[in-house]
Design a protein that fits this description.
- The structure holds 2 protein chains of 2 kinds.
- Chain A is an alpha+beta fold.
- Chain A has 2 domains: 66 residues, Alpha-Beta Plaits (2-Layer Sandwich), CATH 3.30.70; 63 residues, SH3 type barrels (Roll), CATH 2.30.30.
- Chain A contains 3 helices and 10 strands.
- Chain A has a 5-stranded antiparallel beta sheet, with no helix packed on it. Chain A has a 3-stranded mixed beta sheet with strand order 1-2-3.
- Chain B has 5 helices and 7 strands, in the order ααββαββαββαβ.
- In chain B, the strands form 2 sheets. In chain B, strands 1, 2, 3 and 4 form a 4-stranded mixed beta sheet that branches. In chain B, strands 5-6-7 form a 3-stranded mixed beta sheet, covered by helices on one side.
- The chains are: A alpha+beta, B alpha/beta.
Chain lengths: 138, 164
């Protein structure tokens, strides 16, 4: 079965949700999908759908490189499990820790440095790089 | 009398010569279509000719194609002017960036950073894949997959088991 068919519901939902720059290509047994979702809710919905179509997401046949629309100045919520999120001087774990953002704290996006590291600013004025995985656009 | 006849012959043949010098619209159309057929990227265009004025329509691949086909048409014999009504096709979206990810040291570090706060999971890099092993909760499994996708890393998570 072609992967486009297997994930047809996901691709259709992405289109319905208005995911920007939606692109999908099948290559070497993996369906690559990319685009920008309008909200964290849309993003979560797409991932939930992925987990539904492919139980445990264990087939390794979908690369869902979807990010969430967030421009500089956007509010981001710190979504660590419970711990503080480190703010570092450079976009790497090598970077010195220059501040911390608490769990559930809301910070401001300065720039999306890359897919993994975003530059943020806290309400206290601390500015540096944090791991994007723990930041959800509001 | 003879001179008048001669003059008439001259006038008539000159007229005929003049007319035959001016290609008919249908001929121009054929010539234009032939000129355009040389370039396959211009295959979507249409041509209409009236009194030597060529009106182009249809779809061009890109702006260069649109300008190029106008130039070709203008160079065809008998064409007085060109009305270029060609539309340019919207460019296709770029292919997903994850197609070309290289599992270099920086990318591997991103994966390790992403797993740092998820206890009990180990990662090995085999070929172009991150191979994960360990016990995870459903929530953390989702987090791991999202992190791998944002790092554009292919994965093998068959070694991840559900935490009871």
């Amino acid at each position: 079965m072609a992967l486009q068919d297997k994930y047809a519901e996901l691709l259709q939902t992405a289109t319905t949700l208005g995911v920007a720059n939606l692109a999908s290509t099948e290559q070497e047994g993996v369906l690559h999908v990319s685009g920008t979702a309008n909200s964290t809710a849309d993003y979560d919905a797409l991932w939930a759908l992925y987990a539904k179509i492919d139980p445990n997401m264990a087939s390794g046949d979908l690369m869902m490189n979807i990010d969430i629309k967030a421009d500089a100045g956007a509010q981001l919520k710190v979504t660590t499990d419970s711990t503080n999120l480190n703010i570092r001087s450079t976009p790497s774990t090598e970077g010195e820790i220059i501040g911390k953002a608490a769990h559930d704290e809301v910070v401001t996006l300065v720039e999306k440095t890359d897919d993994s590291w975003w530059k943020i600013k806290t309400a206290d004025g601390e500015e540096g790089y944090a791991f994007a995985q723990y930041l959800s656009p509001l | 009398m003879k001179l008048t006849k001669l003059l008439m012959v001259v006038v008539v043949s000159a007229t005929m010569l003049f007319v035959s010098c001016k290609p008919k619209d249908a001929d121009i159309k054929t010539a234009v279509e032939k000129a355009l057929s040389a370039d396959p990227s211009m295959s979507g265009t249409t041509v209409d000719v009236k009194d030597g004025v060529v009106t182009m329509g249809g779809e061009c691949k890109d702006d260069a194609c649109k300008a190029g086909c106008e130039k070709i048409v203008a160079g065809v014999k008998g064409v007085k002017s060109v009305v270029n009504n060609c539309t340019v096709a919207a460019p296709p979206p770029p292919p997903p960036a994850s197609l070309t990810t290289v599992l270099d040291a920086v990318t591997q570090q991103k994966v390790k950073d992403g797993l740092k706060d998820i206890a009990g999971v180990t990662v090995e890099f085999v070929g172009d894949k991150a191979v994960l092993k360990g016990e995870v909760t459903q929530a953390n499994r989702m987090k791991i997959m999202q992190m791998l996708a944002s790092a554009k890393v292919l994965s093998d998570v068959t070694g991840l088991t559900d935490k009871k």
